[in-house]
Amino acid sequence: MRKTSLRVLLASVALLVASCSGAAGGGGGGGASGEQLGAAPGKDDKLKLVVYSKFTDREFNAVTDAMKTFSKKYPNIEIDHQGNQDDDKLTQSIQAGNPPDVAISFYTDNLGNWCQSGAFQDLKPYVDRDKVDLNQLPEAVRQYTEFNGKRCAFPMLADAFGLYYNKDYFAAAGIAGPPKTMDELFEDAKKLTKFNPDGSIKVAGFIPTMPFYGNLAEVWAPSFGAKFLGPDGKSGLAGSPQWKEMFEFQKKLVDFYGKDKLEQFKSGLGDEYSADNGFQKGKLAIAYDGEYRTAFIADQAKDLNYGTAPAPMSASNASMYGGGLVTGTIIAIPKGVKNPGASWELVKHMALDTDVLVQIANGIHNLPSTLASLNSPNLQKSPQFQTFLDLYGSGKLVTKPSTAIGDAHLKAVNDFAEKWVAGSVPDLEAGLKQVDAQINDALAQKQGK
């Protein structure tokens, strides 16, 4: 649902860059390419606004209900919310000149592409005109909704990542609480692992391979203080002791299990977003995941006795305990919409209205993305969900860097991690140098260098 490979999208966006560069945004608004701002609709204006999102089922219904509150401000505007629309469909609709009036994406990975190409309109002129206070958004959230100083999206809920742990397994193993350091995570994983009589894994303390469930390089990196890009905007993984420490930790735990045993065990686990999720079924004692997992557990594994905690940190990064990765759903105005002023009003309503954000957060258990909504007395807070609220307000958030190559840099690192634990990379530093070259070549091509 929230993390997919977007290879096809990168090709689509490459075409979109060519078609959008220097072009006026048909009917435009947002100040892109010298367009005039769209005025807010009048109370009696009859309009239909089409909204694309990837929400489905329970989440789709909750978000649609929140959109209906827009009618209190504009009773004559009809909202046509179309779910299950992925980023590729969104990009294709903009290419074809038939975009939705408002676009909602689960991913920030491709924001750089959309901003640079003009596929998403620049919202700064609207922000300036309406005197929107961006300080109501945490700094890291402001970062992942703009690219190279261009604000072409707003957050609409956020995701933070931490640890989920099985309290019954911890008690049985005599472990008092969740690990705070990577060394503790390693030792706890060994204590919590159970083997069958034939030596196969019955319960894994913690699965260290990636990509797998919430195990992604971008989720792990904040625990080690590892950066995807340096100050020069280039990849420098091979020269980073933080990345080396991360990959060596990963390999050490894989070696404890044995990679063949681990792969066999993983093959028997259910899909990440199904009721057969390994943590929900008691097959994993510890797992990385986002706050939205609390909703899935409440719906699919009501009897699971679990706790949540911040991700553990490496010894050199201990001061960042209590923080971690933040990303989230974004909302924007595509190039070419017919009524940009009305689109902007809906964006503001969904992204900045405290009651709306709290309503959606309560419905789908995502984090509300403004500080006011975070502190609303109407926000429902289970003890497990409170962990992620604390993370969001910690001031220690780290986000993924937006680039003009979309998620290609993230995919390159995750692909490497998979090969590394499989034993097909004999030299860690040499392997990381190859990843650096791959990413930097892609960045240079995009920048025409």
UniProtKB/TrEMBL annotation:
Source organism per UniProt: Actinocrispum wychmicini
PROSITE patterns linked: PROKAR_LIPOPROTEIN
Its job: Part of a binding-protein-dependent transport system for a sugar.
InterPro entries named among the record's database cross-references: Bact_solute-bd_prot1, SBP
Gene3D superfamilies: Periplasmic binding protein-like II
Localization per record: Cell envelope
Signal peptide span: 1-23
Family: Belongs to the bacterial solute-binding protein 1 family.
Keyword DNA repair: no
Keywords: Signal, Sugar transport, Transport
Protein name: Probable sugar-binding periplasmic protein
GO CC entries: cell envelope
Main location class: other
Domain of life per record: Bacteria
Keyword Transport included in the entry's annotation: yes
